[in-house]
């Protein structure tokens, strides 16, 4: 993988040397051997410095679903990855999976993992915002982050946000230039968090971008998993069933977009990260259930309950239902045009079968 590096922040003496006018050397030939010796020492120091600076070192604040999946891909690409989580139990689990993990809870007044963050070349922020507070990390640690990271090795950051910032467009298409109009407290906190991280990037003079994600799905988190595990729907999920449009994105496409952004960094650009098909939730669940019944009907019988309560599979999905607000279709044109991403899963119609393949390969479900 090719990676973009900014040279502007280097404090290397050799870079400063390059700025000296050549006349300076010619006027004093007796100092030339000394300068050359110094130059060679500096070259060695510089190449050592470059070797350590040039390491692709990603720091992931919040090793949740996206964080883990992306960390795994980066490791395979030869990156050094450091991540955080909030509990000892999760840290042990992640360490068992081969990740370098630090405990970090934004409510903790100490930012103990910061010394490791300073050495990172890239930073992914995958911690949700908090209603009424904004971004919990910036809320508690902004000044400390700013002062410590300004002496660090950071070149790129990306904040993972949500398409909820657009509020309700009545179902019209929205792109990144559409004014944000958050209606819920949590969406308002997202907008604050976006601004905060972009400002930090600007103040540090590094590349900073915001990714507005649709509903994330992938292996281990999908309509298939919900049906097979008989997970009950949250109140919010039940309410969202009434929506005509729901943006979603497969985790593999989020990772593609992140890698594209690392290779094509920007200063303050925002990208919608969604697929091409903002289909209603009921339609997706009906498709998922039909897929299970067709390919692995016995799995339903192995589950904790035989009857599927959550999924109105036979119910005809209608677009005339009373809606609950937050209706919008989110455009991914910029993701494709500027980052050059070709979606692996442009619709749940290709994304869910790929997860089914994964489940079959991994002998899912294992309910014992
Ligand atoms: N899920 C979706 O459909 C969706 C849609 C749009 C946007 N997003 C946003 O995209 C981002 C990534 O999503 P995801 O699904 O990967 O999230 P996730 O699985 O919920 O992971 C969130 C991570 O943040 C950590 N975290 C939470 N609160 C924290 C705090 N106060 N201090 C420190 N760490 C904290 C969690 O720690 P532990 O690992 O210890 O739990 C976890 O590692 C999140 O901001 C999410 O809200 C999600």
Question: Which secondary structure elements does this structure contain, and how are they paired or packed?
Answer:
Layout: H1 13-18, H2 22-27, H3 32-53, E1 57-61, H4 65-76, E2 80-85, H5 88-96, E3 100-103, H6 114-118, E4 122-125, H7 136-149, E5 156-162, E6 173-174, H8 185-204, E7 207-213, E8 215-217, H9 223-229, H10 235-240, E9 248-250, H11 251-263, E10 267-273, H12 281-295, H13 297-302, E11 329-330, H14 333-337, H15 348-361
Parallel strand pairs: 1-2, 1-4, 2-3, 4-5, 5-7, 6-11, 7-10, 8-9
Helix pairs in contact: 4-11, 7-8, 12-15
The structure holds NADP nicotinamide-adenine-dinucleotide phosphate.
Task: Tell me what you see in this structure.
Among the domains are: 21-52, no CATH class; 55-217 and 251-274 and 334-345, Rossmann fold, CATH 3.40.50.720. The protein is 43% helix and 14% strand. It has 15 helices and 11 strands. The chain has helices at 13-18, 22-27, 32-53, 65-76, 88-96, 114-118, 136-149, 185-204, 223-229, 235-240, 251-263, 281-295, 297-302, 333-337, 348-361; strands spanning 57-61, 80-85, 100-103, 122-125, 156-162, 173-174, 207-213, 215-217, 248-250, 267-273, 329-330. The structure holds NADP nicotinamide-adenine-dinucleotide phosphate (NAP). The site of NADP nicotinamide-adenine-dinucleotide phosphate has 23 residues, from helix 4, strand 5 and strand 8.
